[in-house]
Design brief:
Ribosomal Protein L22, Chain A, 2 domains, binds coenzyme A
């Protein structure tokens, strides 16, 4: 798969040793394809991660898992001043990976996502984050899927869009924004995609509109629309302001070498 990366995102040559400052959020994209960097990243995983990687059936899923966890370990290790293989993780909610808090006195949050060979890692210091990325692809039954999983207002909005391309794009707006929100909370999709209403459609800024029909519950949330590469859509969510969003591409071959 050829991916042309978003040229507005900077190339990150070296991993930072400082955490994001204030209400800054970093989002890094990485390609999990190519594979020559995989053994070096695999060597950083702990026993549980290595077992999990071994249980994944497809090569693509293995590469996504090893790349994401390997980069995460390298990034957290740099910031915490620890060898990457010694960084410890726990989980909250329905399995959201988090740093084991005994390694740092200051907050440090992250979230990973991957889809079809593209990975994203979001890092923030001031609030928990959620990120989702999706390969834009034809979804022939998008309106029936939306009726099953989305909020009725989102379905109505999708049905209003005449052009197939606009409707498909709006479908992925909703999908990525909802999933980023659910990942920020740590609940995952078990929470119910239809309990969250987001903006969608061309030229509408990403925003969380309602949670359980409450606009008040949604106001403290920030959603950001992201385009890491041509043919990809992503979203970032956090229950806090996002003052400065720093978006970068990471070449795993360079970083893992
Ligand atoms: C979190 C979830 C939405 C991710 O969906 P996905 O599209 O398959 O995967 P993504 O690429 O977006 O994200 C995967 C990453 O999210 C992170 N993650 C896993 N569970 C998470 C959770 N509950 N909250 C936030 N992030 C989570 C992991 O880092 C994972 O990558 P890794 O396993 O390689 O480390 C989905 O797995 C989920 O809902 N899990 C919770 C379990 C659950 O509630 N199941 C409901 C059954 S109805």
């Amino acid at each position: 798969m050829e991916t042309s990366l978003n040229p507005a995102w900077q190339m990150l040559d070296m991993l930072p040793t400082q955490r994001p400052q204030g209400d800054e959020v970093w989002v890094w994209s990485f390609s999990t394809l190519g594979g020559s960097f995989l053994p070096a990243l695999e060597a950083l995983l702990d026993d549980r991660e290595a077992q999990r990687a071994g249980r994944l059936r497809s090569n693509r899923a293995q590469a996504e898992f090893v790349s994401g966890r390997g980069l995460l370990r390298l990034a957290m290790g740099k910031i915490l001043g620890l060898p990457a293989s010694e960084v410890r993780f726990g989980s909250v909610g329905n399995g959201k990976p988090v740093l084991d808090g005994s390694q740092t006195h200051q907050e440090l949050h992250f979230n990973l996502a991957h889809s079809h060979g593209m990975g994203l890692l979001a890092i923030a210091s001031h609030a928990g984050v959620g990120v989702d990325v999706e390969r834009l692809r034809v979804v022939s039954d998008q309106v029936s899927l939306a009726k099953r999983y989305f909020h009725p207002n989102e379905v109505a909005h999708l049905e209003m869009l005449q052009a197939d391309g606009d409707r498909l794009e709006a479908f992925f707006h909703a999908w990525t924004r909802k999933e980023a929100f659910l990942k920020a909370t740590g609940t995952g999709i078990g929470f119910g995609l239809d309990r969250v209403e987001v903006t969608l459609g061309p030229e509408v800024t990403a925003r969380l509109v309602r949670i359980d029909e409450s606009e008040d519950a949604a106001v403290s949330w920030t959603l950001r629309h992201l385009e890491p590469g041509n043919g990809w859509m992503a979203a970032l969510a956090l229950k806090a302001p996002c003052g400065r969003l720093v978006t970068s591409h990471v070449d795993l071959g360079l970083i893992a070498g």
